Amino acid sequence: MTQTFTIEGGPVELHRSSFDVADFPLPNGREEDWRFTPLDRLRGLLEGEPTDATLTWTTDLPEGVELTTVGAGDPLLRSVPKSVDRTSVLALENAKNGAVVVRVPRDAEPDRPVVIRLHGTGDQIVWGHVILDIGANAQVSVVVEHTGSARYSGELSILVGDGARVKFVSVQGWDRTAVHAQHVGIRLGKDASINSTQVTLGGDLVRFVETVEYTGPGGDAEMAGLYIADAGQHQEHRLFVDHSAPKCRSNVTYKGALQGEGAHTVWVGDVLIRAEAEGTDTYEMNRNLVLTDGTRADSVPNLEIETGEIVGAGHASTTGRFDDEQLFYLQARGITEEEARRLVVRGFFAELIHKIGIPDLQERLLAAIEAELGGEPETAISAVQR
Length: 386
Fold this sequence. Notes:
- This protein is an alpha/beta fold.
- It is built from five helices and 18 strands.
- It has one domain.
- The protein has a 16-stranded mixed beta sheet that branches. The protein has a two-stranded antiparallel sheet with strand order 1-2.
């Protein structure tokens, strides 16, 4: 399946989905979905070389939550959202043992979050596929943390049953040498909801593509993200929300900060409202705060509407420096310029962090942001990894 968006200059193919590697030829960098990505830094992940390397897993699973594996050929592997780019389809093809599956039973309400920690220990290529299978009417929080270093390409499938409520947080707290390409494919059942937050602080190159599809009316997707790019880092977040069912909602809020020579962030937000998706309510926003010279923030919102029978649809994107009035206000009360800048950036991210609703994780993220702003990226990564 392929989706196109009409932008200045005519229709552009932005999204292809398939389980077949042949549908995703090796990119050359001129394609719309690869034009911002430094392909040379993805070496190995685009060629698809098989490897036996794996990440180290540790988990904290509440009672009733099951961790299993399914082998190649299991029907579950073809019932998840399809891959959307070459790195993710190669992850499906090369993932050792098929996939790791985390199952939350229907009607379950675990008393603490499901926590999955994935840690890399070198420069080897690693392929992985994780499936979160959330039963109908369950209510659960899931945290996935990435640390250490690897060249990791992953597929993460989130299946949310009818009426289920999920809070999902993915933290990219990699060492500065890591490369991470990921597709997060979310499928929402009737009256199901997900609150998804992506946090990217570490890594040399991190490229996340998150997609949402609805299988019935009443689905609700709240998508958030925060990222801080330091000198030389490339952080790329792409979203595609496919409104194909009536009376569904989506809201996207991503915020980023950039500092240091060569820091580069990319945010691409695509929303498609199909003709049959009457009653849709959607909005997407991206805000970027430029902290130093020598950085680059690309922000591209896209919205295509095929029916006029909707509640609302819109998007916004801003990129700029500090608000001089805010800084003046704080300095006029005896706060130094350096501390005033930290307070402004902390406030910029605070709303998204507090919505996570997991106190220990929120504290670690706030500490990491403080360290980043203080010019201590290694300390920031340590704070995330605690």
